[in-house]
Amino acid sequence: GESVTLTMKNFEKMVEGKSVFIKFFAPWCGHCRAMSEDWDQLADSFAGHSVALIGQVDCTSDEGQPICEDFDVQGFPTLVYGDPMSAETYDGPRDYASLKAFADQHITKPICSIYRIDNCEASEKEMITA
Q1: Residue 33 confidence (pLDDT) above 90
Q2: Which of 37, 38, 32 lies closest to 57, judged by CA?
Q3: Which of 105, 96, 89, 98 is nearest to 45 (CA)?
Q4: 14 FRET partner, CA 20 to 30 A, in 21, 48, 86, 94?
Q5: Would you state the pLDDT for residue 71?
Q6: Where are the alpha helices (DSSP H) in the chain?
């Protein structure tokens, strides 16, 4: 298995309504290659998930570079998670068990935000609409 490759052509459609975990990489990057097997295993375990999307963006490709610029990617690999409109950087360990535990906790629930208010708990709604 392999994680979904996100490009300018499919990005908006793929991330719509999803909570994401995205790896920004370059093919020549050693750290990226070292974690690719764990990342693909993670992608396999969330394949077809209704909320979570495990994706990757090749920052050296014409179709990936603009996305990397949008996310202000400075180095490789850069991992981000959460709401694709306001993703946060993941700085944790890059082995499968750590990534899976983190993903289970952070990207399996529908995004609660000002744009997706219907996914929020009552207490969260109050904070957003206050």
Answers
A1: yes
A2: 32
A3: 96
A4: 94
A5: 96
A6: 11-15, 30-45, 65-70, 96-106, 122-129
